[in-house]
Specification:
Elements (H helix, E strand, L loop, with lengths): L1 H10 L16 H14 L12 H8 L3 H13 L3 E2 L7 E2 L15 H6 L5 E10 L3 H6 L8 E10 L2 E10 L1 H4 L12 H6 L7 E10 L2 H7 L6 E10 L5 E9 L10 E4 L6 E4 L1
Antiparallel strand pairs: 1-2, 3-4, 4-5, 5-8, 6-7, 7-8, 9-10
Helix pairs in contact: 2-4, 3-4
């Protein structure tokens, strides 16, 4: 916590406007909000308990009073605390009925189980992909791929922004004027092109301008990044996608099995 406090103190730069810090562009109030919200979710502050006073948090985190007030206002907006003039801030709890996180891994699996989702397609068409996509799909430079960029919503809040690239030989039967809201892979497989395996990488990135605006988060907010390369039965890559998820809306859970049959026990995916 001392390290987090020092970081907040370093980034709390303007007591009147609470402007974003230069490093990462994340406002100090938002960093404090994230810390307090996580403590509430983890049960460090339970429903009915009071939070430290504004003066106490100002001293504890070495930030301005307006920073504390803005963080508390954000918590109130999220339905996690109740504030009254002249009284201490009371914890209501984490409102799990609003914007519930999605669990159990790939979005395709969630939709197969019937979890509601609203889709907004941002762009559809053919374009030359970035070099990392060209390399992943083993394509020559300047070869155009089918591209789809889409936002997916749970209730009223966006939870993922995805960019998909499909190699020409796998996308030739797709109708870019008739792309449905379901996962693009489902539509590709109906043309007879079947996915058999995938390489997947999870990491964390910071939200940049257009991405932050699309996902309705402050610039510099942490996002979960999933990159996946999908292979056909001949082990040829034909689809690559990059998905960015809001961590307050999405969790990626995996079940692991302890394999002890060898001399070097390992955890394996179930």
């Amino acid at each position: 916590m001392k390290k987090a406090n020092a970081q907040l103190a370093k980034h709390d730069n303007n007591t009147k406007t609470n402007a974003p810090s230069k490093r990462g562009g994340v406002p100090a109030y938002y960093q404090l909000y994230v810390l307090l919200a996580q403590q509430i979710r983890d049960g460090n502050f339970r429903a009915g308990e009071v939070l430290p006073s504004e003066n106490e948090m100002t001293a504890q985190f070495s930030v301005s009073r307006i920073t504390v007030r803005n963080a508390l206002h954000q918590l109130e907006q999220e339905g996690m605390v109740r504030r009254r003039r002249g009284a201490r801030t009371v914890v209501i709890g984490h409102n799990t009925s609003k914007n519930p996180p999605l669990f159990e891994g790939p979005v395709e699996n969630l939709l197969t189980r019937g979890i509601a989702s609203i889709v907004k397609n941002l762009s559809i068409g053919w374009q030359v992909p970035p070099s990392d996509v060209t390399e992943a799909l083993r394509l020559n430079a300047k070869i155009e791929c089918f591209h789809l960029s889409r936002l997916r919503f749970s209730t009223e809040e966006p939870f993922s922004l995805t960019r998909l690239f499909v190699a020409p030989y796998a996308a030739r039967n797709l109708d870019e004027n008739n792309i449905s809201d379901e996962p693009l892979l489902f539509q590709i497989e109906r043309t007879g092109f079947i996915a058999v395996a995938a390489d997947q990488l999870l990491s964390a990135v910071l939200a940049q301008g257009a991405t932050a605006e699309a996902l309705n988060v402050p610039i510099g907010s942490a996002l979960i990044q999933l990159r996946r390369t999908v292979y056909d039965k001949d082990n040829v890559p034909f689809m690559y996608h990059i998905s960015l998820y809001r961590p307050d809306q999405y969790e990626y859970n995996l079940r692991l099995i302890r394999e002890t049959s060898s001399n070097r026990p390992q955890w394996r995916h179930a």
